[in-house]
Amino acid sequence: MSTTIERAPLNGVDVATLLGTRDAVKQTNEIAKFQFRATNAWVAGTHSRSTFADFHGAMQELRHEQDTVVESDHPAVLVGSDVAPTPVEYLLHAIAACLTSGIANVAAARGVRLTHVSSTVAGDIDLLGILGLSGGAVRNGYEQVKVTFRVEGDADDATLRDIVEQSRRRSAVYDALTNPTPVHIEVVTG
Length: 190
Description:
CATH architecture of the largest domain: 2-Layer Sandwich
GO molecular function: peroxidase activity
Structural class: alpha+beta
Pfam families: OsmC
Protein name: OsmC family protein
Low-confidence stretches: none
Mean pLDDT: 95
CATH topology of the largest domain: GMP Synthetase, Chain A, domain 3
CATH superfamily of the largest domain: K homology (KH) domain
Largest sheet: 4 strands, antiparallel
EC number: 1.11.1.-
InterPro entries: KH_dom-like_a/b, OsmC/Ohr_fam, OsmC/Ohr_hydroprdx_reductase, OsmC/Ohrsf
CATH class of the largest domain: Alpha Beta
Strand content: 25-35%
Number of helices: 5
Radius of gyration: 20 Å
Helix content: 25-40%
């Protein structure tokens, strides 16, 4: 007789589903192939609007429960109307959100109850690159990004640090920001 131990949700994470998904992917690797998508439309000036609605995953076309619309713009000092964060600021949100969700998942899988997780993210950028004023000496993107976490839970400091480190090792956003990712641009006119 086999007994299955049901694990209750922890840190808001459905641990049974998390572990079940991992086991299913182990059995059928194709389940792991996802394609996330966004559509973007220019509004005016540097202001644009992106919508996240559908994606492909688990070997099927899927749709989020609700569409998410985000605005992007530049501040007035960068010839924008400052109605939303800049595109590079969304990268700061992306790395923080990815690492934070990873921390919650890793901690839950290890049976660690979290009581607090917050972060501050700062990215240093030199506009000489973007404005083409450096002769190629300054990159267009961030020179560095620093993420500082405050994590509390029912584990010792070393365990909490290890949970953050495992989240970093498995973070898709961290990987995309720290390793070259091929980006193909296709143009359709008319």
